[in-house]
Amino acid sequence: MHKVVIVGAGLAGHRAACELRKQGYDDEITMVGDEPHPPYDRPPLSKQVLEGTMEHRDLFFPSEDLHVTWKLGEPATGLDPLRKMVRVGAGAELPYDGLIIATGRGAREWPGDLGGLDGFYTLRSFDHCRRLKDNLLDQPRVAIVGAGFIGCEVAATLRGRGVEQVTVIDVAGYPMAGLGPEVGRHAAGIHTEEGVRFRLGTTVTGFEGNGRVERVLLCEGPPVDTDLVLFALGSAPSSDWLADSGLRLQDGNVVCDENLFAIGYENITVAGDIASFPHPHIDGLTRVEHWSAAREMGTLAAANLIGEPGQRTPFRAVPTFWSNQYNLKIKSAGFINQADSFTVIEEDSARRSLVVEARRGGRLVGAVTVNKNKKIIEYTRELAAAG
């Protein structure tokens, strides 16, 4: 294998390149990225970078020693696995012997009409963050559509920056719905104490303003007056370039085996939140959209790609996740989305701490802790042992 192409210049792609070099692979590596920037860390965008305690330049991963050929700002536009070619940019082709797909996911766009108004933002990339930060200076009112992790992290950051009015809107009845109602209600109470306003259990029907958005219209209750709107609607797979490739896709994600090889191909592996794969903790396929999974999968996808077939390692790591909001350290382990019941094990309002177990059919499938760091380590070990 003399030419490896990595499509996706994020965390998973960077880890893949690092592992190739660590394994002694000294042939050609080409990394393709749709952004003009080399690989960087995304979690600080909604926290330290937005609040001004971290400079943009501190986001970037060390890449000088990787000796890769960069194709940055040139998104992949197609894949021909029979000819072993990746199309990039305006139609150039990159040949490969081995391919690692790590294109991840992009911000989900607002599906409706914006009425020709300005003042709308998303937060998924370096440039998104810089644009939002630059336009927050004289905007005392912010509406966030979406109460997931990014929406809540940004709400906490903006209040910490002194933004006067932050309103979070979501169709769900509590924020961070993916972590269950107990964690959501706990977080909602703390956000409310910190001055965040919530409009939950409602949907956005439109926007009004004079050239720039000034109001968010809701299906229930009065409109929300605002100076700008941040859409935090989740993510969508960056897989349009694979539509005619013949690779098996599920909801836009590339279907892999347990060793992260694209089904039917011995020279294509997949890493990060574009991968749909089997895991011993669940039935069927899963996808994990967490930083730790992208890091671990990038490493494993590279090692398996250049390793001998008999030495491949399946991906069986317990998914873990964290989110910092105010003085809260929210952490989870396992497959919370598989749970059919949630039980509060510990709660201390003075310390703002919480421990919740997630179970399915009585079996522990995950846990969420708030300000109980040692406890989540215990649950992670328990879940790993059970697998």
Structure, described:
The longest helix is centred in the last third of the chain and has 16 residues, at about 290-305. The protein is globular. It is built from 7 helices and 27 strands. Helix 2 (about 50) links the parallel strand 2 (about 30-35) and strand 3 (about 70). The mean pLDDT is about 95. It has 3 domains: about 5-105 and about 235-310, FAD/NAD(P)-binding domain, CATH 3.50.50.60; about 110-235, FAD/NAD(P)-binding domain (3-Layer(bba) Sandwich), CATH 3.50.50; about 325-385, Enolase-like, domain 1. The strands form 7 sheets. It has a 5-stranded parallel sheet, with helices on one face. It has a 5-stranded parallel sheet with strand order 9-16-10-11-12, covered by helices on one side. Helix 1 runs parallel beside helix 6. The protein is an alpha/beta fold and about 375 residues long. The protein starts with a strand and ends with a helix.
